[in-house]
Amino acid sequence: MTGAEPAPSRGAAVTLARLTKRFGSVLAVDRVSLEVPSGSFVTFLGPSGSGKTTTLNLIAGFIEPDAGEVFFEGRPVSRTPTHRRDLGMVFQNYALFPHMTVFDNVAFPLRMRRPLARRELTAAVASTLALVQLTGLEGRYPRQLSGGQQQRVAMARALVSRPRLLLMDEPLGALDKKLREQMQVEMKAIHRAVGSTFLYVTHDQAEALAMSDVVVVMRDGRVEQVGSPRELYAAPATEFVADFLGNANLLAGRVTARSDETLVVALDGGTVLRVPAGRAAPAPGEGVKLLVRPEDVDVLVDERTDGERNALPGKVGEVIYLGEMTRVVVDTPEGVVVARIAGQRGGDLAPGHAVVVSWPPTAVRLLPRPTAP
Amino acid sequence: MRPRALAWLLLGPVAVWNLVFFMLPVAVMVGRSFDAHGLSLVHYRNLFTTGLYVSVMLTTFETSVLVTAGCLLLGYPVAYLLATSGPRARTVMLVLVLLPYWLDYIVRSYSWMVLLGRMGLVNRALIDLGVVPEPLPILYTRWSVTVGMIQILLPLTVLTLYSAMLRIDQGLLHAAAAHGASPSAAFRRVFFPLSLPGVYGACLLTFVTSLGFYITPALLGGRKDTMISQLIVTVSTDMLDWSLASAVSVVLLVVSLLIVVVYNRFFSIDRLWGGSA
Description:
Chain A has helices at residues 52-60, 102-113, 118-131, 147-159, 177-194, 205-211, 229-234, 239-244; strands at 14-23, 26-36, 41-45, 67-72, 75-76, 87-90, 165-169, 197-202, 214-219, 222-227, 249-258, 262-267, 272-276, 287-292, 298-300, 310-321, 325-332, 335-342, 354-359, 365-368. Chain A is α+β, with helices and mostly antiparallel strands.
């Protein structure tokens, strides 16, 4: 990038207040409230049908909310038509104009928003194409480009007028894995360079964790949890979040005793474990689920574990070698426990081996146990 | 069975049918148009040097251009509405568009005579309202032929435009709006240019169909509004000059084919039937 790069624009702060949208009998978006700070990268993450794309479309103004309001910089925008909302948007299928060249596609927002002299227009398009590393294809038509190139054109079109808010609806969904990971890195760099607020929709948890300042986990039209990627992964509030972000071992049990520092939990299979009591630890008698991430679990063959660690006896079910690590699936009295063993250890494990899985009690996260249906 | 053999089996019946009842008669007709006790261009010379015949051909061309333009101007907004409205409104409108199409065009042409005649509904209304003192000569004019033909061909134009517009990704209009285009700018810059292949296709179908119209100009037109199909009938059944009639037919056939070939050269005919170009 050159020194002629325009100064980063300040991103728009976006507020959603009890935003609600119903399609027929389905509550697609159910009282979603959210504060998006200016210039942040916020990702809506959830399975399909969780309401994340509908939320984005409400923010874009393609559809109107049944209740609630969207605010840009504190101003309600429900009566502002889409084309006056100062947006850029990247669509899942890119939605490039097939009858326009790359240049005309990228110049489109500038021509619509601020009339520029030909030379300024050319310069603005060129610098934006440089930003997305796609120089020299100005004269091509979208159908003459690869998927990755089309994706970059879509990015350039969304960025060229330096909108204060950029909306992205699964923009990397159609790319292959390698390109997707490369684009994640570039997307993050572009975000830093332009300073706009980025609102991103994806169902890919790895993508959400890799790029976002804040992740909004959605489920059935509601916000399940909001937090930084680290918070969500390390301290999920619900079983859904724990399971959706990364892999999770979830052991069901009941609290039998509690002291200031320690909680005694009897698991459903009969094992009794001691775990640290958190600030909002459940009282004796309450059902809990223990979350243990696979990377915290160790698999030992015949060593006795020291009493400090939580341990479960079991039998190896499956050993999956993944190069940088090995995934070991162990059947225990409390159900299946998955361990991720880093490096090249685990080569001596085979299905059927008797083992002990263990983890430090500090690695355990307590989750509320939903009452049985 | 080999795919090739299967293809012949599937195509065979219709191929035989077309050969016997279409290609053969056309070939006979073409042959007759060059026949004057030996190979000759005399019928074509007659055709192109007789003022009456030339003016009929010009009338046919002019009327077809007018009808095509009229159908396009009236049909485009309807097709746009069809393509952009919800499923329920769309169904209702489609039925309304198709309803006249299902009525035989002879019936529709006669209806226009009732409407436009000396003492027809239009003239009655104009007289009763005191707009004109005596009936206007609206029937048996170029105008009445054009109006009748537009009404008859409009569903064809609308449906062709509509099917082309359906293929325009509505997401592109969202993309235009998200990047600052007002609804009218989005229409001008995105929707309209993308609908042009449909416009060309609709014009082609409407124009070529107009060229061969017979009943409507015969019923609604005057002597000066004779079109080429009427000429063919007159020449073959009244004058019994089958060779000249054949020559006129060949001219109509060649002009129609030329238009289709030129269209196909630039826009690919597949698009008309929903293929991608």
